[in-house]
Design a protein that fits this description.
Elements: H1 9-33, H2 37-42, H3 47-54, H4 58-79, H5 84-105, H6 110-113, H7 120-140
Organism: Qipengyuania nanhaisediminis
Keywords: Membrane, Transmembrane, Transmembrane helix
Protein name: DoxX-like family protein
Length: about 140
């Protein structure tokens, strides 16, 4: 694709929608890391949930950060038509995998588990995989430089 050729309209739709979605995740990550009690109370985090967050090992925290910030950066790079969006989404998926591994073996408090619907991890993995696939397909079509 010639660099003067206009990108497809759906690049903007996917880029903006995923940036909004990933931005929500980044806000949640930031607010919980800062232990913003106004936010945690607004979101309905029970004290047992906050205690659970405090027990995350460093590698699980790193996974959460990679998942969130890799996705945000991937959306921004997608909008900028950068081929590096692919690598950002790969990093995000690695981060999600690390967090998923930790949460699968952790003893999550029932009050916190009740806050997250059972379909949410499927949605999270599905959207993260879609973002990688979409960036890869845009690179293959010559849209990303």
């Amino acid at each position: 694709m010639d660099s003067a050729t206009k990108e497809p309209w759906h690049l903007w739709v996917v880029g903006i929608v995923t940036l909004l979605w990933n931005g929500f995740g980044a806000n949640d990550y930031t607010q919980t890391q800062l232990r913003n009690m106004d936010y945690l109370n607004f979101m309905g985090y029970p004290q047992a949930g906050i205690d659970y967050l405090d027990q995350f090992p460093a590698w699980a925290e790193a996974g959460w950060a990679l998942g969130v910030w890799g996705a945000v950066m991937g959306s921004v790079l997608l909008l900028l038509r950068s081929r590096f969006a692919i690598w950002s989404f790969v990093i995000s998926l690695i981060g999600i995998a690390l967090t998923t591994v930790y949460e699968a073996g952790a003893d999550m408090p029932a009050e916190l588990a009740e806050m997250q619907p059972g379909w949410f991890p499927v949605l999270l993995w599905g959207l993260a995989t879609f973002q990688l696939w979409y960036a890869w397909s845009m690179k293959k079509k010559g849209v990303l430089r």
